[in-house]
Amino acid sequence: MFSGSKKISYRYTMASNKEAALASKKLGKDLSVSLRVLLAVPFYLYNNENKRRISLLCNLLTANEKQAEILSFDSISLTPKGKISSQSFVFKLLRQFSYLRKIIYNITRFDVLHLIYISASSFYGSIVPLILIGKFFGKKVILDYHNLDDFFGLHENRIIFKKFINLCDSVILISDYQRQAVDGQIKKSCYLPDAFELDNIQPRVIRSVQPKIVVWGISEKIDNFFCVLRAFHLVKQKYPRAEMLMIGVDHQLNKMKDITTRKRIGGITFIDKDTKQQNDKYLSEADVYVNCLKINYLPDTMLNALAMGIPVITTPANTAETFVNRQDVLYVRYNDCVGIADSIIELVENPSLVWQLSQAARKKVKPYSWSAVKKEWLDFYRQLQ
């Protein structure tokens, strides 16, 4: 009697599963295995770009019947006895240990440990311990490599770096520059476009520029801020009321401040991009975006600027195949400060070119939007099941 009821129950369950599978097929959802992903973020989520990107990945997983959770330093509460400065070594060490303990406590509930690695974290100090924890607990480990600056030190300690990075089940790269840098060193790498929300960006129609320039820093060694600074100095000689926003990391900007003080260059506002400020507003206040990168990388801030209709002056950084010179953007050679200055002056003196660039830019960034690339991310996660 008891075993018969078990068989009936089993048959009923099998029938129910078949119906559910057919229903999910109609809906276009993959419900066969529920993938559980822990998005490990070993830094504070002050930066709005990082917040948005990680939230998009988390929402994508949960919307497709996957379990996902974000664990960052924001969820760590430390109440040290006595007065310990937040910048002190002791406090940082306590915070790091508390974070690792929280990862260990939570990791058993997940199948995949997705590590977000940007310049706010250290590879050997933050990422390596997480890789080892993930592998110790038998989890699939994904390294989402957003730290472009770190690639300059790739060939130093190459054997140690290669050993740890190859423990990962997959390494996600976001630029051709990274792909070339790790060629032959990382076995399980793949290229996935960055998250960029086009639908949430309001386009503007810019018909003339003052100019008010914005240049956005990604890394100290690749931004080439010095070149933009020299170009701005040339522009100021013809248009003294020109303004520029330089947005980057604090230690990088300090060097720029020293130069502007010595050279007596006015009209520059320096902003630390890792503060809690709303960085989006700085793009909305600008009428020219300058991208002077020395490497093959298309930054998401440049995509944001194009989506907003801001005329862009750029080096051929991963854009030559996508954007047409003088139709979508204005190209300059690498390290060409005179070319940047001439392009800015041309925009000031040629309103019809400004209007043309402003109109054309948004159409060109559609292939990079999150609605277009999220399928690639979902396919990537499905392959892990």
Shape: globular
How much of the sequence lies in strands comes to 5-15%
User: What is the count of β-strands?
Assistant: 12
The main sheet orders its strands as 2-1-3-4-5-6
Question: Could you please describe the fold and organization of this structure?
Answer:
This protein has 2 domains: 33-197 and 370-383, Glycogen Phosphorylase B (Rossmann fold, 3-Layer(aba) Sandwich); 212-368, 3-Layer(aba) Sandwich (Rossmann fold), CATH 3.40.50.2000. Helix content is 45%, strand content 15%. The protein is built from 13 helices and 12 strands. It has a 6-stranded parallel beta sheet with strand order 2-1-3-4-5-6, with helices on both faces. Helix 3 (89-107) packs parallel to helix 4 (123-136) and helix 7 crosses helix 11. The longest helix is centred in the N-terminal third of the chain and has 26 residues, at 2-27. The model is unreliable at 1-32 and 80-84 (pLDDT under 50).
Q: What's a quick, concise take on this entry?
A:
With 385 residues, the protein is of the alpha/beta class.
List keywords for this structure.
single chain, 385 residues, alpha/beta, Rossmann fold, 2 domains, six-stranded parallel sheet, 45% helix, 15% strand, globular, disordered N terminus
How do the strands and helices of this protein lay out in sequence?
Elements: H1 2-27, E1 36-41, H2 48-63, E2 67-72, H3 89-107, E3 112-117, H4 123-136, E4 140-145, H5 158-165, E5 170-173, H6 176-181, E6 189-191, E7 212-216, H7 225-238, E8 243-248, H8 250-263, E9 268-272, H9 280-285, E10 288-291, H10 300-307, E11 312-314, E12 330-331, H11 337-349, H12 351-364, H13 370-383
Parallel strand pairs: 1-2, 1-3, 3-4, 4-5, 5-6, 7-8, 7-10, 8-9, 10-11, 11-12
